Amino acid sequence: MEPNSEFRDDEVIYRRIPNKPDFLAPNLLTGEKLPTHTAFRWDRDGISVHRSSILSAHNLGPEAMVKKEEHTVYGFSVQTVRSCKAKLINDPDLDDPPIGIAHALIQGDVPKPEKPVRREISESLAQASRRYYPPEDTPLA
After folding, report:
1. Domain that holds residue 19
2. What is the pTM of this model?
3. How far is Cα 36 from Cα 52, in angstroms, rounded to an integer?
């Protein structure tokens, strides 16, 4: 099975991001904090994310991903991942209940591609992200 075939283009993929300067930087015009490419760091097996469809099926929303007060949850569509030539792989993490069942990985042609490819994918994901939790009208400290 093609890694992306079970993911619908319009499904939202969530990423938990700490509210720290390396990961969220203010937009110079609006002051809104937006993810930087460093918020999408690669582990040896890819970028950890969570699938909204699986969380929803278990009556969980993006707020379930918050483990510390400083966490924010941003999201982007599966189509965004595909458009930057990356793929999604289901990777349930049963050691992280209740959200681990929705865990997935973003990977390149290989789990951790060369640095320029990783940077390009990370920048694309950061630019396409919008905040899901806390709601966009809630200021971040």
Report:
1. 12-133
2. 0.92
3. 22
